[in-house]
Amino acid sequence: MVSLLIHKLVTTRLERRLAMDDTLNLYGTPKYLTIARDLRNKIQQGVYVAGQYLPPEKDLVTIYKASRPTVRAAIAKLREMGMLEVIHGTGTRVTSPQIYQQLTNQLSFTDVIKAQGLTPKTQVTRSEYIQASETVANKLGICTGDRVFVIGRLRTANDIIISYHLSYLHPEYPVDGARLEKMLSLYRYLNEIYGLSILFTDDTIWAEPCPPEIAQMLGIRPHRVVLQMERLAYASDNQVIELSQSYLRSDRLKYKVRIYRKGKMQ
Question: What is the pTM of this model?
Answer without folding.
Answer: 0.65
